[in-house]
Amino acid sequence: MTPSEIIFLILEIVGTVAFAVSGAFAAIKAKLDIFGVLFIGCITAVGGGITRDLLIGKTPPAIFGNLYILAIAAVSALVVFVAAYLSRKKFLTAYEQVEPIQNVFDAFGLAAFSVTGTAVAFDAGLSGNPVLAILLGMLTGVGGGIFRDVLTSTTPYIFKKHVYALASIGGAAVYYVMRLFVEPILIPSLVSMALVVAVRLLAAKYRWSLPKVKLEDDE
Q: Phi and psi dihedrals of 201, rounded to 5?
């Protein structure tokens, strides 16, 4: 494997574990059974990549040729389920402490997949179209989370809280520009991921959100 392939394999594994854990947490909170936890964990981890591949006409999606990624997602979700099942009372009473951990995993997953999604555009010869390249990065980053939220009867996170999609777009855009001018690709990868993680964690801590219309009377 080339150094770039190793880098993106590592990023893919990091993103897969992070999103699978995030999805498992959401599924447990939604009171789903073990199959539901595994399914939500897996679709959160691979849903964005599937959406990206279908958009660029790559069929079947790459995940079906890399089943070890699906296995990593399933094992990650299963570990969360077992841990919660064995100490479910503590899990329920300590959810306020668990949620920040979920946010951290979610931030790393978003960062890793925003980068790998944009990298796919370069690999597919689409680097001449910056809008498409950045869009692919964002879709890879947020797609799994949308599946997770819809399947757990929650308004998708990206539409209501903490500049989620904007962080993904920013990271993808920084990666795209740096990739054109900076070598080795490890540098734009790390810088872009750091940006996404920093924005997401700061947004969660300080409750940053985009403007929205409040129809109800707050007074």
A: -70, -40
